[in-house]
From TrEMBL:
Pfam families: Polyketide_cyc2. CDD domains: PYR_PYL_RCAR_like (cd07821). It comes from the Bacteria. InterPro entries: Polyketide_cyclase/dehydratase (IPR019587), START-like_dom_sf (IPR023393). This is SRPBCC family protein.
Length: 147
C-alpha cells in the first residue's frame, strides 16, 4: 500500500488558512487543478458521508466521500470513490497545525491507497507533487505578503 506525505509551512495564521480550505466543496476556489465541484444529493459540505463530485483542469471527474471533518483540529479526511486513476482503497487527510513562531501554519496532506505494483510509484509521485504540493504552493502564493 503506497503512502504519500507532503508537508509545508504557510506564512499565515492557521485560522486564515483553514478558512480558505475548510469547505469540502471549495477546491476550485483555492486549488489550481480543480475547476468545478458540487456536493451530491444536496447535502452540506461538512456532513460526514457527503460526496463531492469535481472536475480537474484535465477534464477528468472524481468523486470523493468526506470521512472526517473537524474545525477544532483543522482537519478533513476523505476517500476517493471514483477516479480515472488505477487505484483503490484510497484515504487522505489534510490537516493544519499552528506554528507559534511567526504565527504560521504547518500543513500536512497524507494519503494511502492500493495500486498495481507497476503503477504505485508513479501514482504516489503524481499525487504528492501535482495534487498535494500544488495545493500548498497555491496557498503559499495566496497568503504571500498578507498579514
Amino acid at each position: 500500500m503506497p503512502k504519500v506525505t507532503i508537508s509545508s509551512v504557510i506564512d499565515a495564521p492557521v485560522e486564515k488558512v483553514w478558512a480558505r480550505i475548510r469547505d469540502f466543496n471549495g477546491l476550485p476556489s483555492w486549488h489550481p487543478r480543480m475547476v468545478e465541484s458540487h456536493i451530491e444529493d444536496g447535502k452540506d459540505a461538512s456532513t460526514i458521508g457527503c460526496v463531492r463530485n469535481f472536475q480537474l483542469a484535465s477534464g477528468a471527474r472524481l468523486r470523493e466521500k468526506l470521512l472526517d471533518f473537524s474545525d477544532d483540529n483543522f482537519l478533513v479526511s476523505y476517500s476517493i470513490l471514483e477516479t480515472p486513476q488505477p487505484l483503490t482503497n484510497h484515504k487522505a487527510t489534510l490537516q493544519l497545525r499552528r506554528v507559534t513562531d511567526g504565527d504560521r501554519t504547518y500543513a500536512e496532506w497524507t494519503a494511502s491507497f492500493d495500486a498495481a505494483p507497476e503503477d504505485a510509484d508513479k501514482l504516489a509521485e503524481g499525487m504528492g507533487a501535482n495534487v498535494f504540493q500544488g495545493g500548498f504552493n497555491a496557498l503559499k502564493s495566496h497568503f504571500a505578503g498578507q498579514s
